[in-house]
Amino acid sequence: MTKKILIVDDSDDDSDAATVALRGIMGRDEISIIYANTILDAERKFFAPENQDIVGIIMDGHVSAGSTNAKDTPELVKEFRETFEGPIIASSSDSALAERLVEAGCDEAGDKGIGVARIMHKRLAT
């Protein structure tokens, strides 16, 4: 069964690094990646009927809003946590922001790319 993972990151390089690492660890055919590059885009994709089978989320700490009324990333994590029980992994090089994301509901934080991929793999394997 393919596992669907939402990556919320406004950096294509960081999204690509996470994708390559996830596919390397979990297997190319074992995962399906959904990308969101703004908070507004992440909300749309997370709540879309076709994405109710998301099993994990990788959340960058600094993501542009996409609109003037959009939430910040810790608020988005809190919103996701209202209905989502799977792993949410904070992906931020800013340790203070990573801590805020964990306090908001992320399971843990990891380094971009291979770090978050290893954590996600471990969380989904249990």
In words, what does this structure look like?
The chain has 126 residues and is of the alpha/beta class. It has a single domain, classed as Rossmann fold. Helices cover 44% and strands 21% of the residues. The protein is built from 5 helices and 5 strands. Helix 1 links the parallel strand 1 and strand 2. Helix 1 crosses helix 5 and helix 3 packs parallel to helix 4. The two termini are 15 Å apart. The model has no long low-confidence stretch (mean pLDDT 87).
Computed CA radius of gyration, to the nearest angstrom: 13 Å
Number of helices: 5
Ranges where pLDDT stays below 50 over 5 or more residues in a row are none
DSSP helix fraction: 40-55%
The overall number of domains is 1
Euclidean distance between termini CA atoms:
15 Å
The gross shape turns out to be globular
How much of the sequence is in beta strands?
15-25%
